[in-house]
Amino acid sequence: MQPYRILAGHSFGGLFAIHALITKPTLFNSYVAVSPSLQWENAEALARAEEFLKDQKELRVTLYASIGNEPGGIGESFDKFKEALSKTNIKGFEWQAERMDDEDHGSVVLRSHYFGLRKVYEGWQGPRDMKSGAVLGGLKGADEHYKKLSERFGYSIPVPENLINQMGYQLLGANQPEDAIAVFKANVERYPASANVYDSLAEAHERGGRLDLAEPLYDKARTLGEQNNDPNTQIYKANYERVHAKLKETTKKQ
């Protein structure tokens, strides 16, 4: 579990999300308010929200608010809330408010939570080459991107193991074996308890004809796979046995 909290609510729940934002703004990192009933009690919460937004200078949270095709007080109060948001210039405050005219009070919920989470995690994926899908800037670029994400979300977010592995195979496919090996080695250093990182580095050495380097890495992958009940353990075993047999055959011929 990561130390990042999101509060989401619909209707009276949306009203509660706005209430939490303006009374305990740092209790949650992000808020999703769907069809908030800001018109309730003569729009008292709306008035308090408008005052809150006027007074804030810095607020490092994200807010996503939405409403369906909902006429009357609830729609009018939403429009006033959106207008108050548009007048803000609060440092660190990210927000989005939108109407979904093809939804109603009930159907707006699912879409809104989806778009709300998209807003919260906007920019999570790093920049990639449009044609190849490769991460721009390679491993260094990925490190820089995840460092920024860590600063934004307030906790350490490492470059994922599978992303580094993907980068290594992209380099192999582009006939850059030395660069690929360097990336796979970095993955081993960062995720030493993973069987797969050793298997991938071994494969890179095997493709380059370095069976002597590949064999102990396949053996490590096989061992870790067994220890961790890795579902790919049989693959790791097969890879080790294949390379081990090739080395034995090479030794006999010498």
CATH architectural name of the largest domain: 3-Layer(aba) Sandwich
Number of domains: 2
Order of helices and strands: EHEHEHEHHHHHHH
What's the total count of β strands? 4
Mean pLDDT: 95
Q: Helix coverage percent of residues?
A: 55-70%
Poorly predicted residue ranges: none
Would you summarize the structure shown here?
The protein has 254 residues and is an alpha/beta fold.
Question: What would your notes on this structure say?
Answer:
59% of the residues lie in helices and 9% in strands. By secondary structure, it is α/β, with parallel strands linked by helices. The protein has two domains: 6-120, Rossmann fold, CATH 3.40.50; 160-253, Tetratricopeptide repeat domain (Serine Threonine Protein Phosphatase 5, Tetratricopeptide repeat, Alpha Horseshoe). It has a four-stranded parallel sheet with strand order 1-2-3-4, sandwiched between helices.
